[in-house]
Amino acid sequence: MPCCIILLLKVLYTSFISIYTEYFYREVTFILETIRTVNNDCCKNKVGHNKFGWIAHLIVCEKEGKMTVYIIIEIKVMNHELYTKYVKKVPEIIKKYGGRYLVRGGEVIPMFGNWNPERIVIIEFETEEQLRNCFNSAEYLKIAPFRENSTITKSVIVNGYLPPE
């Protein structure tokens, strides 16, 4: 092979490697910056806010144990007047601690088994710590007797599910 072709191939190869390295460096830098941003403000940036944001969100949250959790509450109301006092005050407390209602009452349609609850409430929190802080807070404990004395309540905490890609 003539020397000029070899030299040309070396130049092309070097240029390709240089361009590819620069592209790769920019992408890695972008990913690391995204992770750093999400790490500094974890869970306030919602999944999908940029092309790698959801990956960064999952990596950081999973590492720190900050996966979305839900509290599922089954309620049978025994004293509607007293329960109404609870219902008027609790949303503000839930919101203050980062909770978000996904289901709050509404029609319940039995599907399997003999489960036919009167009322279902599902609340989402970004972390189990937020959920526990909410329901152990002084504000909540102040109104909890309204619920305790007016309902029969069962509840569970469940972790969110992240399907594999």
Main sheet: strands, sense, barrel: 4 strands, antiparallel
Rg on CA atoms, Å? 26 Å
Q: Give the CATH class of the largest domain.
A: Alpha Beta
How many structural domains are formed by the residues? Answer: 2
Content of β-strand: 15-25%
CATH architecture classification name of the largest domain: 2-Layer Sandwich
Proportion of helical residues: 40-55%
The total strand number stands at 4
Average pLDDT, to the nearest integer?
A: 76
Distance between the termini: 47 Å
In the CATH hierarchy, the third-tier topology of the largest domain is known as Alpha-Beta Plaits
How do the helices and strands follow one another from N- to C-terminus? HHEHEEHHE
Shape from CA axes?
Answer: flat
As laid out across the biggest beta sheet, the strand order is: 2-3-1-4
* Derived structural class: alpha+beta
Structural write-up:
- The protein has 165 residues and is of the alpha+beta class.
- It folds into 2 domains: 3-63, no CATH class; 69-159, Alpha-Beta Plaits, CATH 3.30.70.
- The chain contains 5 helices and 4 strands.
- Strands 2-3-1-4 form a 4-stranded antiparallel sheet.
- Helix 1 (3-40) packs across helix 2.
- The longest helix has 38 residues, at 3-40.
